[in-house]
Amino acid sequence: MSASSEYTPLSPSSAGQLDTRTRWDLVDQVTFLLQRNEELHDLLRSANTGADAVLNKNQELRESMAKLRAELDRVYREMGNEGQRQTDQMHLDMEVARRQERISRQHAHQIHLFKTALHMSTMLIARLDDHLAHFMESRDAARAEVTDLQLQLAERDRTIANLRSQLASAVSHHTP
Fold it and tell me: Cβ distance 46 to 120 under 8 Å?
């Protein structure tokens, strides 16, 4: 190495930087989690809409059955056939019970969908938190290594400056 060549410090090694592949993997995973979270949001919205529709239909059926009962009562009063009215009322009550059971099953299914979506959302958020924590740890480790490399570079720069000074002094003593 000649004394006239200019010193250029080396850039920090790749060990001091975040691994690009790891960063892109993390970005891909976060993107995936955000997409899944949107899907879950849509599923929750759908479950809520379905539950509202079931409740509205249940209310409509109750109102319809009440009207039918009132009409049957009126007809049987006019006919005076109490036994037949009771039989018809029993059949009507059984039909109402079947419909309400069917509606209850639909409502339970909507609740199950909601709970599943909520659980999946919670799991995705936990996974995202884990990935972010890993990213932060990697970033902190990279910063520590960069700091260490910068200290090593500064020490090397001081050593080189000292050697140049000694070389210049030695050259000046030997020059006639």
Answer: no
